[in-house]
Amino acid sequence: MRLNKTLAWVLTLMATSPLAYAQTEADAGAALIAQGEKVAIASDCQACHTAPGSKTAFSGGYAIASPMGAIYATNITPSAQGIGGYSEAQFARAIREGIRPDGAHLYPAMPYTSYHLMTDDDVHALYAYFMHSVKPVDKANTLTKLTFPSNLRFSMGMWNAIFGSTDSYKVDESKSAEWNRGNYLVNGLAHCDTCHTPRNFMMAEKHDQPLAGAPLGSWYAPNITSDPISGIGGWRDDELVSYLKTGRAVGKNQAAGGMAEAVEHSLQYLPDSDLKAIAVYLKQTTPIRTEGETAAAYTFGKPVSVETAIRGDAPNNAYNALGSGAKLFSGNCASCHQPDGSGSPNQAYPSLFHNTATGMIHPDNLVSAILFGVRRTTQDHDVLMPAFTSPTYVDPLTDQQIADISNYVLHNYGNPQVTVEAGDVAWMRKGGRLPFLAAAQPYMVPGIAVGIVVVILLLIGLRLRRSRQKHKS
């Protein structure tokens, strides 16, 4: 009897051991994939690799606006049209170095200039997530067609050699684990530097001015160094965490444009510990003061209402034309932001005073919010401000009207030293002023042609001169 019991126990153990091992292996695989999903969220992959309105995540097609033209994000699902044929080594090289399996270079709209810091463990987990959890979508990539010389992808090899880096993240032992996590997120996965660091004439980041603020098309990515005037040095940690999680920090700022996308697709899903780590790191960055700023942007303004003064003054004509910034504000803005600019009681419609967007020395975000509106969906709330440029469901405004509203807001609620001209609005409507390299691009082909002609003429002249000298001798 005892022998039978022992035999039964041994047989049971033999039968269940492979099952237990398989279960452990499955749990390990599931944990790896879950970690990869966290890396994908922190890296904001979906925001660029999913076209607006698309029901298939990571299938590409989103046109990323760049000064050189539209760069279309590719399909990164594990299909034949996507990255299904990538080995892990090829995947890692694309992520960190911006080089495809066929050797072609990616444009740095894919932020490999930050992702090079990604650890081996995170690359491995990210690969597992995309290959084993993301649904494959057989969708062809939209071809990126930039003009010469930007269409020469091999030129990115030279650009990378001058400005790129392949260094992986190195822990700073003199700092806390929380600071190191924040550093890794800000400069690596979340690639905050790609927007918030100014760029040189070759469109590479100025590494001596990290996170000091930079134009971003029609918008402006503000200074997020620890400077108390120009940066976030005067923000409390909990205000930074709230801003990253919900897209707003009452009395400080609200996310719009590209930052709204980052909050909606990425930052709101990070654990609070990561958001706190980002805040801790940012509060300890080197402070950089923006030239011309003497007070924090969120300290400007006070409630002001001119409704009583403008009621019955120069009544609207038959076309309902409003002739001043005050009247334009009353007719287009006051119903949400209140006649005195204080916003709604719950600040879903934010106050226009004590607001970074209206207090900055750069008015880009104020003007762009009027032009393009604000859309942001988080677990906390939905935000929708209509665009006042076509197509829109409200009456579109002209460049001069938007300039008039902006100047009324700036004079009463924001930085009164800043003025907006109709020409400024026209540039922002077109996507912002072009950096040198992009502005020079249309003249490069004619310039090269002229250069070749000049060289040919010089060679002909040199040959004729030698021929004459030989003839004289």
From TrEMBL:
Compartments where found: Cell membrane
Residues passing through the membrane, by range: 443-464
GO molecular function: electron transfer activity; heme binding; iron ion binding; oxidoreductase activity, acting on CH-OH group of donors
One GO CC term, this protein: plasma membrane
Signal peptide, first to last residue: 1-22
Keyword terms of this UniProt record: Cell membrane, Heme, Iron, Membrane, Metal-binding, Repeat, Signal, Transmembrane, Transmembrane helix
Protein name: Cytochrome c, mono-and diheme variants
